[in-house]
Amino acid sequence: MKLFTIFGDPVSHSKSPIIHNSVFLKFNLNYRYNRTLLKDGSNLRDLYFELGLSGASITVPHKETAFKICDEVRGTAKEIQAVNCFVTEGDKIIGYNTDIDGFLDSIADFTNISKVLIIGAGGTARALTVGFLNKNFDIEIVNRSRERLLNFSNFNIKLSDWNNFEPSNYDLVVNVSSAGLKDESLPIDKKILIDIFKNSKYAVDVIYKKTTFLKLAEEMGLKTRDGSMMLVYQGVRANLLFTDGKIAREDIQKEMILAYNL
Ligand SMILES: NC(=O)c1ccc[n+]([C@@H]2O[C@H](COP(=O)([O-])OP(=O)(O)OC[C@H]3O[C@@H](n4cnc5c(N)ncnc54)[C@H](OP(=O)(O)O)[C@@H]3O)[C@@H](O)[C@H]2O)c1
Asked: What is the DSSP letter of 51?
């Protein structure tokens, strides 16, 4: 049997076991995917080998540690400097980042995107920045405070904090801050957000529910998407790596969407 897990803290809420196991079961693979609560990231590499894993997902707060302990990192994970997926090759851990492709897959039906505003400047904002720049989108970032924006100073993009932000016209506005995760707060002042939405087409929140941010965008006529499909699509990309071409992408996708919505 091949074993997989998700490492994170917290991890009990994760739907990853449900979506991955649904594919393994449907296609009669003798694979199992569990959850592993990991408090101390410094154990990650030893634990991975102790558990005899063929692959794993890595979530908050261990993605940066995961990047550092791989034997080899492939694809956009190198630029993002964060890994959310391990695959065992021989005695080596190969690291990938499927978050950005998952995000882009989740908005594949959004058309004519050129100018993008990212609200928030954490780890997920970094993944999106790399992915959007690779797509040649014209992006800017606004964040509550100045400090975390410094992590983006190597990118040639406009960076603003709440004090010096002047909104422009955007095709797509993405909330990647944690505002709205555990409360009804907006990621930026409501009046400013209304100004932004007046001239925008699409709003996406990477949080897995209809946040106050998305409700306001909808009220103002924007097309919206929450983060649940990003989760599913990053899982599809990871499952393709775990199953190494045995199952077609469309079949994985169909099964995971079904399992997620059950
Ligand atoms: N759908 C998915 O598959 C998926 C995948 C990954 C992450 N996520 C979600 O993405 C969000 C961000 O994750 P992350 O790992 O990037 O977090 P992070 O590294 O901790 O960064 C959090 C960001 O949110 C900002 N922030 C926090 N509270 C705020 C508030 N009340 N108002 C305005 N800004 C606020 C912070 O600003 P300061 O710098 O000022 O503190 C910072 O920029 C989380 O909600 C997470 O659940 C979803």
From this structure: T
**Confidence tier at 84 by pLDDT (50, 70, 90):** very high
Sheet holding 92-96, edge to edge: 31-37, 2-8, 55-58, 85-89, 92-96, 72-73
Q: In this structure, are residues 24 and 53 in contact, taking their beta carbons and an 8 Å threshold?
A: no
Q: Which of 15, 63, 201, 246 is catalytic?
A: 63
Domains of the chain are: 2-97+229-261 (3.40.50.10860), 102-226 (3.40.50.720)
Considering only CA atoms, which residue is closest to atom 21 of ligand 1? 122
Q: What contacts 11, CB < 8 A, 6 or more positions away?
A: 35, 36, 37, 38, 59
Average pLDDT, the chain: 96
